[in-house]
């Protein structure tokens, strides 16, 4: 049981980190056109949406 809770907490921590990164990326873009012109930001944001399932 303890191992299961630890795994869940680890996953939740990972999800929170991804949300923080996405929020940072959204805040760094001033407009939709700004976002569209930055392929690296687009790639980073999509990678943070892909939350792995163990």
Topology:
Elements: H1 2-28, H2 32-37, H3 39-49
Helix pairs in contact: 1-3
Write up what this structure looks like:
By secondary structure, this protein is mainly α. Helix content is 81%, strand content 0%. The protein is built from three helices and no strands. The protein has helices at 2-28, 32-37, 39-49. The longest helix is centred in the first third of the chain and has 27 residues, at 2-28. It starts with a helix and ends in a 5-residue tail after the last helix.
Structural class: mainly alpha
Indicate the percent of residues in helices.
over 70%
Radius of gyration: 14 Å
Q: How many DSSP E strands? A: 0
Please, what is the average pLDDT?
87
Helical stretch count?
A: 3
Sheet of most strands: none
User: Could you state the oligomeric state of the chains shown?
Assistant: single chain
Shape assignment: elongated
Strand content: under 5%
Distance between the termini: 17 Å
What ranges have pLDDT less than 50 throughout 5 or more consecutive residues? none
Q: Please trace the helix and strand order, writing H or E for each element.
A: HHH
Structural key phrases:
54 residues; mainly alpha
Compact overview of the structure:
The chain is an all-alpha fold and 54 residues long.
